[in-house]
Each structure stands twice: as structure tokens, then as C-alpha cells.
Amino acid sequence: MNPGSAASTALCPVCDIPLRFAFKKGRFEYGRCPECGTVGTHPPPTDEELADHYAKAENYKVLKKYEESYAATYRRTARIVKDAAKRKMGVEGLENISALDVGCNIGGFVKALLELGADACGLDPYVNPDDISCEELKKRISRDESDYGGQADFLTMLGVIEHLRYPAAALAESRERIKDNGMIFIQTPDSESAVAKIMGRRFFAYQPVEHIYIFSRRGLIKALERAGFVEIEASRQWKFLSASYVYEQLGTWGRGFQWLLWPLRKIVPGLSLPLYGGGMTVCAKKNSCPKATEKAE
Ligand SMILES: [Zn+2]
Prior knowledge:
By secondary structure, the chain is an alpha/beta fold. The chain has 2 domains: 1-44, no CATH class; 57-242 and 276-296, Vaccinia Virus protein VP39 (Rossmann fold), CATH 3.40.50. The protein has helices spanning 47-56, 58-65, 67-89, 108-115, 135-140, 167-176, 194-199, 217-226, 243-253, 255-258, 262-267, 290-296; strands at residues 20-25, 28-32, 39-42, 98-102, 119-123, 141-142, 152-158, 178-189, 213-214, 229-242, 272-286. The radius of gyration is 19 Å and the shape is globular. The protein starts with 19 loop residues before the first strand and ends with a helix. It binds zinc ion. Zinc ion is lined by residues 12, 14-15, 33, 35-36, 38, 219.
């Protein structure tokens, strides 16, 4: 704890209490919430810094390059969403179910949802339309949120909430964009995962500028409850990624890790690796009548 540090004045986005200094990374400090374990940077990046960062972020170029191999990961995730929709919304499939993928990048996950029959759209203020591979997808992806006036049956955020400066407000806003009986599905790093604990300040998710708040599982559950969601389920996020993709992504985090995978990549470049990187998958149902529930409690 460093009481004089800047992070000691930053607040947990869930508990509204000061974060305690945890470690320094670059010119940013990260603090941890003593109540829920959520980790945040302080000072948060400015809008200019964020726009500048996303304009040149290398890992997004990698995503574009490996669009095909990443498609399998999105298809697996879409099937997980389909199962969640069955549990939360009581639907047998995603045919004609409307979906909004927030922070959709070049639309890989929107495409996977469309393949399952969903009426899916995407939103991403930083996407370059020229990077979107087909015309059908281009029509369904927007940089401007005012394009979506209505509500969707469900909303997805894959690797998004950790990038937001106001995540609690984003969850409350998300709830308004979801129809009654609908759900939200989130994937994000977990600040209290075993991987995060073992790696400490070297945890992949602690990326200043880009990742602002890394929630703990209990922190995200609390944030969702406050935003008006119920029936919250959380589990570990497994990723199945090609050895070549993982090799290249490790390069964006630091070359020191790359040698670990080099032999594997040479032998079986198309190999798909099941990886647990310290992420979590959380889905929850919209509480359509929060006031009535409060009274019942
Ligand atoms: Zn907290």
C-alpha cells in the first residue's frame, strides 16, 4: 500500500471505495479494491490516448490476419451463448433471436451468431469498415450507437468491459438495450483467477491504456446485480486457439514468452490449443421488474 499514490484516490467502479495501490506498469499505477478485488488503472487514459492507441494497436492487426483461424473460437463461443439462451430465455435455438455484439471489432462473432440463425448486429466505435470482410457483415456493423434505437433479445461483450472507462454505466445502459426476458453474456479477464495470482503484475490482462478495469468474478457479479441483472452464472473461459495465432499474440505481449511455443508452432502450425488464460464467462438475465424484486426481498 502506498497511501500517497495516485491509485489511492481512484475508486472501484463497483464498490465506490478507493483502490489500494497494487503495482506500477509504465506510467500507470494499478490499484486493487479491498472489498471486491477488482483492479483498475489510475489515472485512466484520456479519450485522445485511447483513440490514438486503437488507431495503431498491433493485436487488432493480428486478429485481422488470423480471422479464419479465430472463426472456430467464435463458433465455439456462439454455441456457449446458444446454451446460455436456452437456460436464461427458454429458447431452443437462436433463429430469429436478435443480438447485439458490443465492441465487435471486424465482426467475427457477429458472423458466428448469424451462422446459428440469430438476427445479429455489431457495434464498435473503433472499427475500420474497410477491414470487414464481406458486404453482408458491413451492413450489420456500425461505429455509431445511435444506429440501434431498439432492444435486442441478448447483448454480448467479448473482451470489452475491461476497456471501458465507465463499466458500471455501460452495464446499466446495456440493460436498457435488452428486451424483457433477455440476457447479457460477458467474457473478460478475472483479476482473482489462478493465472492472475501466479503472474502478479505480469498477468496478460494488465495492459495500460487498453485495459482500464480488470474485474474479479465477485466484483463483476456485484456490478451486474447493481445494474439490474439476476440469475448470474460465472465460469472459467477456455479458449481454443491455433498454435500460430497464440505464438504471434504472445509477441504483442512480450517476446520473452514466445520461445515457449516456438517448437510447437513449427511442428503443428494448425494445432488448436485449449488455453485457460485467466478469463471468465459470465451470463445473466435482465431483471425486468427490479423494484418489485426489491420489495419481495
Ligand atoms: Zn470493489
